[in-house]
Amino acid sequence: MKPSTLPFAAAAKEGVHALPSSEGNAASPAEKPTARRILVIDDHVETAESLAVCLRCEGYDARFECSSTSGIAMTNSWLPDIVILDADMPEPNGFETAAIIRNIVPNPDLIIIAFTGLDWPMGPERALEAGFDSYCQKGLPLRTLLDTIETVSATSLR
Prior knowledge:
Number of strands: 5
CATH architecture: 3-Layer(aba) Sandwich
Number of helices: 6
Oligomer: single chain
CATH class: Alpha Beta
Shape: globular
């Protein structure tokens, strides 16, 4: 399937980044009322959208934004439990965005996971020093990110 024919591509182009359930406003079988809210922030539209769809299939209440600025606004208004943030975003970059989110979001338990395709030798350490709770390399199997989410969620002391 070409990226332009992804099921939610039209909504993304219109700036609508909440993923509709399969039955209008009714929760899909995988979506539980107590599902953790995850916001994906990535400047690559297809990556953000497809990751949000995959997380939705795993039972999370997932949305996405495609810029740091819109991601910050959504984080402040929607109040997700977890933010998966591309560390290599344009201005402000992912590290600056994480710091801004930490300063404005009133949730001390918010988890922010750095998600990047960059292969930094000090990537995980730099991410933790910058205020991320964890780090996951793009390109690894989805299971790796899901395991990261579960591990950080279980051990987060924020």
